[in-house]
Amino acid sequence: MKIQDRFAKALSTVAHRVSKLQSTEICCGALTREQFETLRTIEVARDPSMSALSAALRVDLSTMSRNVSVLEREKYVSRARPAEDSRIVTVVLTPKGRNALETLRCDEQDVMAKVFGKLPAAHRTSIVEALEAVQVVLESGGDAAAEACCVDDGVSAKRAAR
């Protein structure tokens, strides 16, 4: 198997397994994984507008509004209108939302620490450096799907249009 194929298979498998860990061992209780990601995004963006939050999570504005409504009803977030422009609605973490994030973040760190502990000690630094390099590439933007080698069967074009 070519090195590029090995990379693709390994990265896909790791992404799937991490996603499964996040769903089964990290996000528990009243929050779904998507709600956890929404709270994380709100924290990082520091009180984003609904449209900024929607764009950051790559979901439709109406979907984001429904998701935020649920979080608001459960007192994880609140909506606010800045005095300088009351047309904009921002989303703010409440103390309950901050507490939920901190608790889940600790759970995530515990789970990932167990995975890290199973890695061969001699390879840990190079593994972390390789993961950080992949992270930089993925965060740098660009549309990997547009550069895909697959034959356009109509399905790929629909995915790219989203």
Structure overview:
Helix 1 packs across helix 5 and helix 3 packs across helix 4. The protein contains seven helices and two strands, in the order H-H-H-H-E-E-H-H-H. The protein has 162 residues and is mainly α. The protein folds into two domains: 93 residues, Winged helix-like DNA-binding domain superfamily/Winged helix DNA-binding domain (Arc Repressor Mutant, subunit A, Orthogonal Bundle); 39 residues, no CATH class.
- Number of DSSP helices? 7
Total number of strands: 2
Approximately how much beta-strand content do the residues carry? under 5%
* Mean residue pLDDT: 84
The overall number of domains is 2
The CATH superfamily of the largest domain bears the name Winged helix-like DNA-binding domain superfamily/Winged helix DNA-binding domain
Which strands sit side by side, in order, in the main sheet?
1-2
CATH fold-level assignment of the largest domain? Arc Repressor Mutant, subunit A
Sheet having the most strands: 2 strands, antiparallel
Q: Which CATH architecture of the largest domain? A: Orthogonal Bundle
Distance between the termini: 32 Å
Q: What is the CATH class name of the largest domain? A: Mainly Alpha
SS class: mainly alpha
The rough form would be described as: globular
